Amino acid sequence: MLFLGENMKKNNKFFVVTYGCQMNKHDSEKIIGLLLSQGYKRAETMEGADIIIFNTCCVRGSAEDRLFGNINSLKLIKDKRQDLIIAVGGCVAQKEGSKLQRKMSHVDVVFGTHNIASLPTLIKEAQKGKIACEVLKSPRDEIKALPVERDNSVRAWVNISTGCNNFCSYCIVPYVRGRETSRSFEDIVAEVKMLASEGFLEVTLLGQNVNSYGRDLYGEIRFAELLRQLNEIDGIERIRFTSSHPRDFNGDIVLALAECEKVCEHVHLPLQAGSDNVLKTMRRGYTKEGYLDLVKKIYEAVPNCSITTDIIVGFPGETEEDFLDTLDVVKQARFDNAFTFAYSPREGTRAFEMENQISKKVKMDNFKRLLEVQNKNSLKNNLVLMEKELEVLVESPSKKKADVLTGRTRTNKVVNFPGPHSLINRLARVKIKEVRSWSLNGELKEVCERESICRL
Ligand code: 5AD
Ligand code: SF4
Known about the structure:
Layout: H1 6-10, E1 13-18, H2 22-37, E2 41-42, E3 51-56, H3 61-72, H4 75-80, E4 85-89, H5 90-96, H6 99-103, E5 109-111, H7 119-127, E6 132-134, E7 155-159, E8 161-162, H8 173-177, E9 181-182, H9 185-197, E10 202-206, H10 215-218, H11 223-231, E11 238-242, H12 251-259, E12 266-268, H13 276-282, H14 288-301, E13 306-313, H15 320-333, E14 337-342, H16 360-383, E15 389-397, E16 404-409, E17 414-418, E18 427-435, E19 440-448
Parallel strand pairs: 1-2, 1-3, 3-4, 4-5, 5-6, 7-10, 10-11, 12-13, 13-14, 17-19
Antiparallel strand pairs: 8-9, 15-16, 15-18, 16-17, 18-19
The structure holds 5'-deoxyadenosine (5AD) and iron/sulfur cluster.
The site of iron/sulfur cluster (SF4) has 10 residues, from helix 8.
């Protein structure tokens, strides 16, 4: 533990605002863990903080606009409270570097995606009145060893790789997260064993492309082998992973998914587009047929598997015929959920330069059409679950009613059911009594003891 100076004792309350994906949420757990380990304290609200930290996302322009709006709205407060420190980290910080402080002079600290470990030093510099900015291009080793303040006591995120080598033509991620870097087998297994010993039940393996895990480190993909090893760890009951890349989801991974009883029956398999033309200009490395073939193999191996996806509508040059191909895949793949995004041009990517950008109206119309088809899929898939008993990991009271609990099935579906708060963070067996497109309602059948988990 590092002790703070007198001045810092007074100004040591921090508040973290997180935007974006699970990777960012996990990074925020590291930011919080690191600051707590150095004697800083958490503020309950942004208003009560001496240090406000934005952990940012730049995947789409909308997230970035929202961020700039939020930071700008702090200008008036900063004018009145000169000792307030505003720090910006994450993908926008990595992309913009010190330009950010030139654009917004009230930002005191900028730290890139590889610079979390330097945050305490940067904060101290800023508190001395210096402009503090550190944006490294590649990861530092100590990032692995950062303390983590987990948001939850039974579900944990575990990085298995960072960065991405794919350079899909629309995507900014490889530019801000750097090249794909896998963590070693030993490191990952040790972390998951540690989590198991601390009482965690569920781990979610994180990477921009988890399926290619190991290629950079061992010269071959070893994701299936990783799943099999983690499956052997006592105490862990559920293993999830995200995101997958259809091109790297090989037969070994399909087999591991089927054979490892702790690996949940859920695959998030970003489609992005259904037409071969669009997939090619997106540089995705698979065809419509290839994608559908993979989906078929997954369903054959794991019949109750839930498949969810990401889809971009309005990629430059996308025609009505191209879009119909996307709708066709959505129907054939029977997705449980589709996260749909209107294409957002990102400066620095190949697609940014492309002509024939699609109008906002077409993007919005197609967005709605996609949603309608997907809603039907989701409801149809959920109807099959009526009267079935499913294993639910209980997460919290439901937002609407205090005596109703909410949790997730192994297939990652949300289930609400009446029950006591003592069930939170435990596994329960719930009979499904009512289904909607996006959630299931049920009644409690049995609480599962850890020694006799009710795998269904
Ligand atoms: N515009 C819209 N959506 C995008 N995504 C990534 N880049 C863009 C972009 N430029 C979506 C992809 C990805 C998800 C995380 O964000 O669907 O899978
Ligand atoms: Fe972006 Fe493609 Fe890498 Fe995913 S696989 S992070 S979409 S470049």
